[in-house]
Specification:
Blueprint (H helix, E strand, L loop, with lengths): L8 E4 L6 H15 L3 E6 L5 H14 L3 E7 L2 H11 L2 E5 L8 E8 L7 H13 L13 E3 L3 H12 L6 E5 L9 H7 L3 E5 L16 H4 L1 H9 L3 E5 L6 E4 L8 H16 L2 E6 L4 H9 L2 E6 L4 H8 L3 E4 L2 E3 L9 H15 L3 H4 L8 E7 L5 H15 L4 E5 L4 E5 L4 E6 L5 E7 L3 H22 L3
Parallel strand pairs: 2-3, 2-4, 3-6, 7-8, 7-9, 11-12, 11-13
Antiparallel strand pairs: 1-5, 4-5, 9-10, 13-14, 15-19, 16-17, 17-18, 18-19
């Protein structure tokens, strides 16, 4: 059994992420670090206080002290851990539905636990080999409010004042506690929606996918703002609309920042996830840099391995000069700075990023069938595409990079009973052909392998 997925532990509170599990994680983390201070934060979900208290109890029982920050966004938890803690834990299920919750663990640098650290926590939990503190060595709890300090840290890093008008959508999540204030401190005029905390997420689904936030395009046009920014439930993800109300594809935003960092550094390495566009490779290569891909949820492992100057996966951006964690607040600050320094609207700036037709679609697949379906899909695609294949990446599912720059990715979801199919073509026609082939192979494999 494996507890940690692509982004910590996540799942339903009645069957997976229970108070009992939170207690065990607290005990295991306290055992792992042996002693010291652990920084704790939580999102606005209805179950977060329950899990937070169980986690804290586990930590105190091992002799660890706890710095309790309360309701905060995940980037702030990472930053605070880097400043104050020997480890950190965020109680959040990020963009998952309100029925779920999760536990995300950070090391003393504010970096999400590396794979080997997660494996060690799991070993401690499954073996129940916990450290137990004596009655007079039980840890203590200290409550702190660091929101103003965090905002000031971001402001100092971005170093920019603006007069742009920004529409902000907080998804009823904890980003609403920081983003409007940060933007106003920068000088922006801010119009906020879904900015009151509510763990039921009444405004919209918390994941900032286009289909969940498409209404922002109309609002941008009606209000005449310079851009719109949307976050998810714990504010590690960010999505953007330009001044015309056009959604900026997540890969385009990654390519834009990658291009800036490589140009600024006159080269360097960019790390991105397995499911991102060739447009990133194109702009980085043209600027004199190099791209490496890693599995989803392993950007921090990639930065460590390749010494990257920038890392991102869809909606998530790491700016190593500020910190080694995903930080949407730094991203929004730097994006506004870019728009002002370019002295032209965002719609004009992103025209410099090449666009290729891309499609993503999921095939429902029971978890127990995923290995066999993946085996069939890889073999079939390899056979059908053999004359076109340039390289095959197998770090997360299987991705076929083709000689013309098109690519096909088939990947089992780490959190849901689905197989994800992603295809990008150099032309619309090529994209359609490849998608029909890949989606058809996966769908047929699932149906043929289902028990009768």
């Amino acid at each position: 059994m494996k507890l940690f997925g692509t982004a910590g532990i996540r799942g339903p509170i009645d069957s997976k992420v229970t108070p009992e599990l939170a207690l065990s994680v607290g005990k295991a983390l306290g055992t792992y670090i042996n002693s010291g201070k652990v920084v704790i934060g939580r999102d606005a979900r209805t179950s977060s206080v329950m899990l937070e208290n169980a986690l804290i109890s586990g930590l105190l029982s091992t002799g660890c002290d706890v710095i309790e920050l309360g309701l905060i966004p995940t980037p702030m938890l990472a930053w605070a851990t880097n400043k104050l803690g020997d480890a950190g834990v965020m109680i959040t299920a990020s963009h998952n539905p309100p029925t779920d919750n999760g536990i995300k663990v950070f090391n003393e640098n504010g970096v999400e636990f590396y794979l080997e650290q997660e494996e060690e926590l799991e070993r401690i939990i499954f073996s129940q080999s916990y450290k137990i503190a004596k009655w007079d060595e039980i840890g203590k709890v200290k409550k702190l409010d660091l929101k103003e300090r965090y905002i000031n840290a971001v402001l100092k890093f971005v170093e920019h004042e603006t007069n742009l008008t920004v529409l902000y959508d907080g998804a009823n999540g904890t980003g609403s506690m920081i983003a409007p204030y940060l933007l106003r401190e920068m000088g922006a005029r801010v119009i906020s929606i879904n900015a009151h905390l509510d763990g039921h997420f009444p405004g919209r689904k918390p994941e900032p996918r286009y289909e969940n936030i498409a209404y922002l395009g109309d609002l941008v046009r009606q209000l005449g703002v310079d851009l719109a920014i949307a976050q998810d439930g714990d504010a590690d993800r960010i999505a953007v609309f330009d001044e015309k109300g056009n959604y900026i594809p997540e890969d385009t935003l990654i390519a834009l920042f990658a291009k800036l960092y490589v140009e600024e550094n006159k080269g360097g390495v960019v790390v991105t996830s397995i499911n991102t566009s060739f447009r990133i490779d194109k702009v980085v290569r043209d600027a004199g840099g190099k791209v490496y891909r890693v599995p989803l949820g392993q950007l921090h492992d990639g930065i460590k391995k390749y010494h990257a100057i920038f890392a991102a996966e869809p909606w998530k951006f790491i700016h190593p000069k500020f910190g080694m964690w995903i930080d949407s607040f730094v991203t929004m600050g730097l994006l506004i700075k870019l728009i002002d320094e370019e002295k032209r609207p965002l719609s004009e700036i992103v025209k410099e990023i090449p666009q290729y037709p891309l499609i993503k679609k999921n095939v429902k697949c029971p978890d127990e069938l995923k290995p066999k379906v993946m085996e069939v899909a890889r073999n079939e695609l390899e056979r059908k595409l053999k004359d076109e294949i340039k390289e095959v990446l197998t770090i997360s599912g299987v991705r076929f990079n083709l000689k013309d720059g098109s690519w096909v990715l088939v990947r089992p979801s780490g959190t849901e009973p689905k197989i994800r199919v992603v295809v990008e073509g150099q032309t619309e026609k090529k994209m359609r052909e490849l998608f029909e082939l890949a989606y058809g192979i996966v769908s047929k494999a699932v149906e043929s392998l289902k028990p009768t």
